[in-house]
Amino acid sequence: MIMVYDTNTDVLSTLKLQFPQITVAKTLQQAASQSIVFIALHPPIIMETLDKIVEVVSNDALVISLAPKITIATIASKLKTSNIVRMIPNATSYINEGYNPVAFWSGFDQNKKPVIIDMFKLLGNTFEVAEFKLEAYAILSAMLPTYFWFQWNELSKLGIQMGLSEEESKTSVQHTLMAAINLIFESKLTPEQVMDLIPVKPIGENQAQICEIYQSKLMGLFEKIKP
């Protein structure tokens, strides 16, 4: 049985329509009393939520936090169980192609690790990392698509403006992007050698500005979300 709780009843109604098999919990405590408990909350409200569920989370429950910033040690300071995990969720898990780093508390029951790994493998590539690396993966994996999706969408629109059909434009962008990614990471050429393969760079004059945006925005966000 999968039991879900949210303070927003509209969210619960939408989830129930999309996934009729779920059970909507009547209270936060009812959901938190299950054998596997997911904490899918924004960092600022996690601690107050833990205070509300500490009495109902069992000693051997598996607790999985999907939030950055709040460490396993901080969560463990509130709960009785030592079986605590953190995982950075990925949008690409929607098509079961996620890149899912997980970190386990030092006191985690080793016999229960396969339960967690096997569960997350359904969503894509799952691997164990040191906890201090999770926030870096949040920037370079979980949020990475947002840096590019709007650009790829805009390029697909440009193709239509240039006379391609919608399908032709999308296929061109998708195929070339996938090949370009393989080229820079698997060709054994240096990044500079790869970038020199195309002599004409229409937005080359803006490259330094774009790199500065990445540095300032993403490093700034990293400093904000790390413990």
What would a concise description of this structure say?
The protein has two domains: 136 residues, NAD(P)-binding Rossmann-like Domain (Rossmann fold, 3-Layer(aba) Sandwich); 82 residues, ProC C-terminal domain-like fold. The protein has 227 residues and is α/β, with parallel strands linked by helices.
Question: Explain this structure to me?
Answer:
This protein is α/β, with parallel strands linked by helices. The protein folds into two domains: 136 residues, NAD(P)-binding Rossmann-like Domain (Rossmann fold, 3-Layer(aba) Sandwich), CATH 3.40.50.720; 82 residues, ProC C-terminal domain-like fold. Strand 3, helix 3 and strand 4 form a beta-alpha-beta unit. Helix 6 packs across helix 10 and helix 7 crosses helix 8.
What is the topological layout?
Blueprint: E1 3-4, H1 9-18, E2 23-24, H2 28-32, E3 36-39, H3 46-53, E4 62-65, H4 72-76, E5 84-87, E6 98-104, H5 113-121, E7 124-128, H6 134-142, H7 149-161, H8 166-186, H9 191-195, H10 207-225
Parallel strand pairs: 1-2, 3-4, 4-5, 6-7
Antiparallel strand pairs: 5-6
Helix pairs in contact: 6-10, 7-8
Question: Based on CA inertia axes, which overall geometry fits?
Answer: elongated
What is the domain total for the residues? 2
How many extended strands?
7
The end-to-end distance, rounded to whole angstroms, is 33 Å
- The CATH topology annotation of the largest domain reads as Rossmann fold
Low-confidence stretches: none
Please tell me the CATH architecture of the largest domain by its name.
3-Layer(aba) Sandwich
CATH domain class of the largest domain = Alpha Beta
Radius of gyration: 22 Å
**Individual helix count:** 10
* Strand composition percent: 5-15%
**SSE run:** EHEHEHEHEEHEHHHHH
**Structural class, judged by helices and strands?**
alpha/beta
